[in-house]
Amino acid sequence: MRWSPFKVETAAPMDAVKDYKLKHLSHPRLPMLAAHLRDIAGANPQLYDLYTQREKMEPKLRHTRSMYLASPRMEPHKVISRTSDTANILDCVRTRVYERFAPAIDEVVEIVRGELGVTQIGRIFITKLLPRSTIDPHIDQGEYFKFYHRVHLPLQTQPGCAFTVDDHNEELVEGDLYVLNNCLMHSVANPSEKDRVHLILDVA
């Protein structure tokens, strides 16, 4: 079944269930799908240049570049944590980039639905952290993150690339799923000579 977003009427009490730092899950299909998505992203680097305002407005993201597959109905480069327009920030739709990654992205979404039991998909984007750079420690705040969990699927990573959540530090594995508690302080380091590339899905 292909994913179709639907309008969110009420916010879910996500804070009550965020009793973890970084949940790790695996699925036999995900490594192949992750490699396929990585190859598509690598063949279409111009998609990272469609929306760059988020990186320009958020200093902690200055070393990242992102391509948006699904976003709030408002422009995808808006800094959604700073708006009070709850309906528009929770109700997400596919962008024109989405179909570039189908049908692999459809299958990833369905696996995430099945593994995590989620019913709502928020933003979906592929983001790269540039070589020898970091994402500074921060907490994701605002109405959007009271509703959505953030799920990472590493598409390309190298030894030494580490995710730190609170006091937990971990090198993530390509093709595995990670549910991040981004209500805790977290940061990322990429000391390698290559881009670190993740698919990120927000789910509820």
Notable features of this structure?
204 residues; 5 helices; four-stranded antiparallel sheet; Jelly Rolls; disordered N terminus; alpha+beta; seven-stranded antiparallel sheet; 31% strand
* Helix content estimate: 10-25%
Radius of gyration: 16 Å
CATH level-four homologous superfamily name: Jelly Rolls
CATH topology heading: Jelly Rolls
Taken in chain order, the helices and strands follow as EHHEHEHEEHEEEEEE
Pfam family, one: Asp_Arg_Hydrox
Protein name: Aspartyl/Asparaginyl beta-hydroxylase
Structure write-up:
The protein is 21% helix and 31% strand. The protein has 204 residues and is of the alpha+beta class. The chain has a single domain (28-203), classed as Jelly Rolls (Sandwich), CATH 2.60.120.10. Strands 1-9-6-11-4-2-3 form a 7-stranded antiparallel sheet. Strands 5-10-7-8 form a 4-stranded antiparallel sheet, with no helix packed on it. The protein is globular and about 35 Å long. The two termini are 18 Å apart. The model is unreliable at 1-17 and 76-85 (pLDDT under 50).
Secondary-structure map:
Blueprint: E1 22-25, H1 30-43, H2 53-57, E2 64-72, H3 86-90, E3 92-94, H4 104-116, E4 121-129, E5 133-138, H5 143-147, E6 149-156, E7 162-165, E8 168-170, E9 177-180, E10 186-190, E11 196-203
Antiparallel strand pairs: 1-9, 2-3, 2-4, 4-11, 5-10, 6-9, 6-11, 7-8, 7-10
Helix pairs in contact: 1-4
